[in-house]
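Collaborator request, handled under Task 6.
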Amino acid sequence: MSKRRKKASSKVTRLQAQTRAIRFFNGLILCLFGLSAGLVAVATALPQKRKLDEKEMEFARALQKEREVVALMEDKQAAYKALREDPEYLEIHARDRLPLHKEGESIYRIERNR
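Structure tokens returned to the collaborator:
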């Protein structure tokens, strides 16, 4: 009887070892599957992230250009308002742009080569 019990207990021990090995490999395969699924998710997100960065840069450039245009528009509006309402500014502008001067005044212009 002792031989049978030894055979039965060795068979159980062997089955337990096989079960532990199978569980280990199942866990390892599950981990590898999860890791590969995560890598696939990251790999599919990279092009979208790159496109998002490009769109943000494009948006920033558009905002900068808009600020420049708004600043230019405000300058032009201020100059237009000054030409319409401020006689001193009109006089200065006329002397600068046109060959106008008051009587008895001498004007010296320095022309630059452009």
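The cover message to the collaborator said: "The chain has a mean pLDDT of 86. Helices lie at 2-85, 87-97. Please let us know whether this matches your experimental observations."
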